[in-house]
Write a structure and sequence with these properties.
Length: 321
C-alpha cells in the first residue's frame, strides 16, 4: 500500500495536480472537492482536485494502518526491542510525511519540499521493508566485509540519484534536454550549477511549471544523466563482486534487470517527450530498485575479520551452497 501511495504521489506531481486543492487538509475548505470555487463560483479543475484528495485520503489510510501496526507491536511481548524502535520510526516518518504534504501545498510546490516529500516516501517504503524482513525469516549470506561495505556505497549512490530525479521533476526539467545522448546537440551544454542547486533560494511564488532559467534546468537534467552512469557502473561492479555467492544470484539478476529497465525508461522519457505512463513507471522503478538493493544488503552478513584472513580455500567453501 505504501508503494501505491508513492505512485499516486508521483502521478499527482506528473499531472500538475499538487495544487489542485490550494488548502490543507481539506479542499477549498471541504472534505470532498467542490465543483465550483466557493468564493468566486467559477469552475475548478475537478480532475486535479480529486487526484490530490485521493492521494491524501489513501495516504491517511496508510497512516492509520501504520498506527495500528505500531500499537500491535508495542503490545506484543515477542517483538525485539530494535524492531519496536523501527516501528516507532516508521510512525514518526508518517507524521513527517503529513507535514511535508501540507507544506507542499502551502509553500506552492517549493522544490526543496517536493523533493523531501518524495524522499520521505522512499524512506517510508524502505523502513517498512526492513520491518517486514525483521519479522520474517530471511536467509543471511556471509560475505567479505568489503562486499557489504561496497553495497552500502552503491545504496548511497542510488539514494543520491533518486534525489536528483526528484529535483529534476520538481523543477520541471525532465525535457530540458529534448535529445539523447546529447543535449541540444551538444555533449556538454552550457551549465549553471550555482542556480541549479541553490538550496537557499526560497521565493514566495507559485513553483508550478518551474521558475528556473533554461540553462539551470539543463544543468539539473545533465547532472541527473551523468550520475546515472555512475549508479549503473557501481551496480554492475557490485554484481560482479557478489556473483560468486550462489544464494545471491537471483537477487542480483533482479537488481540488474531493474537497472536496465530504469535506464530504458529514462531514455524513452526523453525521446518520447515524457509520456505520463513511462514517467510514472520510471518513478515506480526507482522505488523497486531501492527496495531490491536494501533487501540484498539486509541479507549480507559480513564475515568476521579473523575468518576473512583464513586461507583462500575456506572462503571458497562459503561461496558454494
Amino acid at each position: 500500500m505504501a508503494l501505491v501511495v508513492v505512485t499516486l504521489g508521483a502521478l499527482t506531481r506528473l499531472l500538475d495536480a499538487g495544487l489542485g486543492c490550494p488548502d490543507w487538509p481539506g479542499c477549498y475548505g471541504q472534505l470532498i472537492p467542490p465543483q465550483l470555487h466557493p468564493e468566486t463560483t467559477t469552475a475548478i479543475d475537478s480532475h486535479k482536485a480529486w487526484m490530490e484528495m485521493t492521494h491524501r485520503y489513501i495516504a491517511g489510510l496508510l497512516g492509520l494502518l501504520i498506527l495500528v501496526l505500531t500499537f500491535c507491536v508495542e503490545k506484543s511481548n515477542s517483538v525485539a526491542t530494535h524492531t519496536r524502535w523501527l516501528c516507532r520510526g516508521v510512525l514518526m516518518l508518517v507524521i513527517a510525511q503529513a507535514l511535508f504534504g501540507m507544506w507542499t501545498v502551502t509553500m506552492q510546490l517549493l522544490p526543496q519540499i517536493v523533493t523531501l516529500h518524495l524522499l520521505g516516501g522512499m524512506a517510508l517504503l524502505s523502513l517498512l521493508l526492513l520491518l517486514f524482513l525483521q519479522l520474517s525469516k530471511t536467509t543471511p549470506v556471509t560475505v567479505a566485509p568489503q562486499g557489504r561495505k561496497f553495497s552500502i556505497i552503491v545504496l548511497l549512490f542510488l539514494i543520491t540519484q533518486i534525489t536528483l530525479g526528484g529535483w529534476t521533476s520538481s523543477h520541471y526539467a525532465g525535457l530540458a534536454c529534448p535529445d539523447f545522448p546529447t543535449c541540444h546537440g551538444k555533449w556538454l551544454p552550457a551549465l549553471d550549477l550555482q542556480q541549479a542547486f541553490n538550496l537557499s533560494d526560497i521565493q514566495t511564488t507559485n513553483y508550478e511549471g518551474g521558475i528556473l532559467s533554461s540553462d539551470a534546468r539543463v544543468t539539473i537534467h545533465v547532472v541527473h544523466r551523468l550520475f546515472a552512469l555512475l549508479v549503473v557502473f557501481s551496480i554492475m561492479l557490485l554484481a560482479v563482486r557478489l556473483w560468486g555467492y550462489t544464494l545471491l544470484r537471483k537477487q542480483l539478476l533482479v537488481i540488474l534487470s531493474l537497472t536496465l529497465i530504469q535506464v530504458s525508461l529514462g531514455i524513452s522519457n526523453v525521446l518520447l517527450l515524457l509520456p505520463l505512463s513511462l514517467a510514472l513507471l520510471h518513478n515506480t522503478g526507482a522505488a523497486l530498485l531501492l527496495l531490491s538493493l536494501i533487501h540484498l544488503i539486509f541479507r549480507l552478513q559480513p564475515k568476521p575479520q579473523s575468518l576473512w584472513q583464513q586461507p583462500h580455500h575456506n572462503l571458497e567453501m562459503d561461496r558454494v551452497i
